[in-house]
Specification:
By secondary structure, this protein is an alpha/beta fold. The chain has a single domain, classed as Ribonuclease H-like superfamily/Ribonuclease H (Nucleotidyltransferase, domain 5, 2-Layer Sandwich). It is 48% helix and 20% strand. The chain contains seven helices and five strands. It has a five-stranded mixed β-sheet with strand order 3-2-1-4-5. Strand 1 and strand 2 form a beta hairpin. Helix 1 runs parallel beside helix 2 and helix 3 packs across helix 5. The radius of gyration is 16 Å and the shape is globular. The N and C termini lie far apart (46 Å).
């Protein structure tokens, strides 16, 4: 089975392809899709999806494992990230890939044993788990490796990860934006 791990971003999207089989988990490829900052959003989104489609054709994953959306203080940033996540999800769904998402805290917990670990610590532990001699690329790439590894981690590790509050977080966001609740 091949798993695609994605750390979505509107300027840099990390990706990782992991394969599991008789020899355990193997890294097929990882890296990032970077966009220039002065390019309009719709062109950045097109660039991310175009590059991703090439990678999907090459590795033919069965599962998309993506970092879940979190509630940001900046609503516009959250909306843009939602567009990126949606475009990636549709691109993968068109290839009949199954979908799983993990909160950043769940990924950190599965990879390091602590949900409050730094990105650098996550990168170190991913390097250890996947037996990589060195980590290359930005932290977005190591985050994507961590997300894919979480998908393949033993269920007991992921089960210990905290669940999203969901409804309460949304209520807080609505109130913070000046909305009212029934």
């Amino acid at each position: 089975m091949v798993v695609l791990g994605i750390d979505p971003g509107s300027y840099v999207t990390g990706y990782a392809f992991l394969s599991t089989g008789d020899k355990g988990v193997r890294v097929l490829e990882y890296g990032s899709i970077a966009c220039k900052t002065n390019v309009p959003f719709e062109d950045r989104l097109l660039h991310i999806i175009t590059e991703l489609e090439v990678l999907l054709e090459q590795h033919k994953p069965q599962v998309l494992s993506m970092e879940s959306a979190f509630f940001a203080k900046n609503v516009k940033s959250a909306m843009i990230l939602g567009h990126v996540r949606g475009a990636i999800l549709v691109t993968c769904k068109k290839r009949n890939m199954s979908f799983a998402e993990y909160s950043p805290r769940s990924v950190k917990l599965a990879v390091t044993g602590s949900g409050a670990s730094s990105k650098e610590r996550v990168a170190q532990m991913v390097q250890t788990h996947l037996r990589l001699k060195q980590m290359e690329g930005p932290l977005d790439a190591s985050d994507a490796l961590a997300i894919a590894w979480t998908q393949l981690a033993p269920p007991s590790v992921v089960a210990k990860a905290p669940k999203h509050k969901g409804k309460n977080d949304m209520r807080k966001l609505i109130l913070k934006m000046g909305g009212t609740l029934p």
